[in-house]
Design goal:
The protein is of the alpha+beta class. Helix content is 31%, strand content 28%.
């Protein structure tokens, strides 16, 4: 059982990428309140940007009064409220019809973290220089891979790789996947949009993070590498480190 208290530090960077004319990713975090979130919006015109920023704003607003180590129920309620806000906004404005966003949230406590995800934005943990993907993508191709109906190589080439099977704000209700882990000093968590992982494989991400640098420099390394690899989508990386 974990006994050592940990505190956290964080840094984030978001970039439009080399191909897109706008950035539909959004992020927010509060070390004080122990909440970290990345969203990747979808929808025509500026709808994706509206959806992702609305989700981040709602989650940060509704958890602003929490002390670090907020309860799981409070985050779930904030996610439900964000879903309702996006869905209702789309119902009222035809130009925003169908908008939605992926979402990954990390809630940090003194001994553990709880991670919530909807869609294909991910959370990874680097521990002892080994990278582990925590979340599971809610995407058509990744679900086919998990069922054994498609190989990883086929998934990378599939024209359906952009099809998301679960998103925030596209329906009246949505349920996130939830993961909870004890933390240890030195753990490094990466929350990212798929613009990062579409360009960089896990071994490369692991190598980029396994260097003793400030978090802001590590974020720059990730984003620069993704742009160098093509930068076909918006790129967001949010790093959270458990300190001793």
């Amino acid at each position: 059982m974990a006994t050592a208290l940990v505190h956290y530090s964080a840094s984030a960077l978001s970039d439009r990428g080399r191909k897109r004319t706008s950035n539909e990713d959004s992020y927010g975090f509060s070390v004080e309140h122990g909440v970290y979130v990345v969203c990747d919006g979808m929808g025509g015109a500026a709808a994706g940007e509206v959806a992702s920023s609305l989700a981040v704003d709602e989650i940060m607003r509704l958890t602003a009064g929490n002390s670090a180590g907020n309860a799981r129920d409070q985050i779930e309620a904030a996610i439900a409220a964000a879903n309702h806000a996006i869905y209702s906004r789309a119902q009222r404005n035809q130009k925003l019809s169908g908008m939605g966003t992926t979402m990954v949230v990390l809630a940090a406590g003194e001994h553990h973290v709880t991670i919530f995800n909807i869609g294909d934005s991910r959370c990874y943990r680097l521990r002892n220089r080994r990278l582990e993907q925590i979340t599971l993508d809610h995407s058509l191709v990744e679900e086919q891979v998990r069922l054994g109906r498609m190989t990883e190589a086929d998934a990378l080439r599939s024209p359906l790789r952009n099809v998301i099977t679960r998103a925030l704000g596209t329906q009246k209700e949505v349920t996130p996947d939830i993961f909870e882990f004890e933390t240890a000093p030195g753990d490094l968590f990466l929350l990212n949009s798929d613009g990062l992982t579409r360009e960089l494989d896990d071994p490369l991400i692991e190598s980029l993070l396994s260097i003793d640098l400030p978090l802001d420099e590590l974020c720059e390394r990730l984003v620069n590498a993704a742009n160098k690899a093509g930068g076909h989508d918006n790129i967001t990386a949010l790093l959270v480190r458990a300190e001793g």
